[in-house]
Specification:
The chain has 345 residues and is mostly helical. It folds into two domains: 214 residues, Rossmann fold, CATH 3.40.50; 92 residues, Tyrosyl-Transfer RNA Synthetase (Orthogonal Bundle). It has 13 helices and five strands. The chain is globular. Bound molecules: adenosine-5'-tetraphosphate. Adenosine-5'-tetraphosphate binds next to helix 1. Adenosine-5'-tetraphosphate (AQP) binds next to helix 1.
Length: 345
């Protein structure tokens, strides 16, 4: 458990960088909903500043931003319980992000594996924003002094960097405990949903093949087709989860089933021990359709009223700003910036 000094607060976000996948749903959104239903304050962001670290067509970005809000709400996030907003409407993120660029060390950033994966062999040509992304992510979290961040396994290293930035800021400016040392919450059977065509690579919005992922807006027919064509292996399902150890595709499909049904992988294996893929895959597809279809239907309904979605974002941004701005003002005072009459803005 993180700091007792700080009020418990959850922050997390998703990039509007394309259509949402089952990985985003199981690794993040489903868990955002679970956390909303606890006593802890929950803040969920559409991190549009992060999305533009790679090229986004402006009208597609607007669409993806609204669609992400629609997915949040259709999946069960409730604006009376959670703050839902887009990052660019709260200037504290970018302003604190700059300060953290000056706190984080080059050596720390050079160790970020996600940058290496995303930049690939093309590191010289990618944006500076992609490289600096983790310090903006630290600002997203710490602008709210969030104590807990539900994320998928792929974001663990970035939350660790957030902890390092918080500790260095607290130390350098001699303000012990100003920022909390945030805890990542990485739990459940789907902390890393893998691709359907390659069980060794994460399912991703921007992955090259659409058949590798389930999109939250896919039709029932397409979901069934994708699971039918999902890579598996020649063996039936094993008698115990240990038998999935060297079978990445099989393990992934079992984990997806477990998360979608709110069960453990053990209990899924107990039910399907010895089953052939011809039995398991249709059951998995039916389950996925039963979970995703009501959500995508509600998403399309919400998307018919973009003004209502923009209103959710405006109201959420005002609430987010009311928390983040005083934190930023304290940071400015701590750092030694002079604040004139326009503050508080
Ligand atoms: N495959 C996944 N399994 C489990 N969790 C996942 N998340 C993403 N993919 C998986 C979790 O979703 C949250 C938001 O992620 P994001 O969209 O902000 O960034 P990302 O991790 O880079 O997602 P993508 O789909 O891979 O986007 P692109 O392709 O645009 O880079 C995070 O909590 C993440 O862990």
């Amino acid at each position: 458990m993180a700091e007792t000094l700080h009020t418990q607060r959850v922050f997390s976000g998703i990039k509007p960088s394309g259509g949402l996948t089952l990985g985003n749903y199981l690794g993040a959104i489903q868990r955002f909903v679970d956390m909303q239903n606890t006593d802890i304050e929950t803040i969920y962001c559409v991190v549009d500043l992060h999305a533009i670290t790679v090229w986004q067509d402006p009208s597609e970005l607007r669409h993806a931003t609204r669609e992400l809000v629609a997915a949040y709400v259709a999946s069960g996030l409730d604006t009376s319980k959670s703050i839902i907003f887009n990052q660019s409407q709260v200037p504290a993120h970018a302003e604190l992000g700059w300060i953290f660029n000056c706190v984080a060390r080059m050596g720390w950033m050079n160790r970020m594996t996600q940058f290496k994966e995303k930049a690939g062999k093309n590191a010289e040509a990618v944006s500076l924003g992609l490289y600096a992304y983790p310090s903006l992510m630290a600002a997203d979290i710490l602008a709210y002094k969030a104590t807990h961040v539900p994320v998928g396994e792929d974001q663990k290293q970035h939350v660790e960097l957030t902890r390092d930035i918080a500790a260095k800021f607290n130390h350098d400016f001699k303000v012990p405990d100003f920022f909390p040392i945030t805890e990542p919450i990485i739990e459940g059977a789907s902390t890393r949903v893998m691709g359907l065509r390659d069980g060794t690579k994460k399912m991703s919005k921007s992955g090259a093949s659409d058949m590798d992922r389930i999109n939250m807006t896919d039709s029932a027919e397409l979901i069934v087709k994708k699971f039918k064509k999902a890579k598996s292996d020649a063996e039936p399902l094993p008698e115990s989860v240990e038998g999935l150890k060297d079978r990445p595709e099989a393990r992934n499909l079992v984990n997806i089933y477990a998360s979608l049904s709110g069960r453990t992988s053990e209990s899924v294996i107990e039910e399907y021990a010895g089953a052939q893929w011809g039995r398991f895959k249709p059951a998995l597809a039916d389950l996925a359709v039963s979970v995703l279809e009501p959500i995508s239907t509600e998403m399309s309904r919400l998307m018919q009223d973009p003004a209502e979605i923009d209103k959710i974002l405006a109201e959420g941004s005002a609430k987010a700003n009311a928390i983040a701005q005083p934190v930023l003002e304290d940071v400015y005072d701590i750092v030694g910036f002079i604040r004139g009459q326009q503050w508080p803005r």
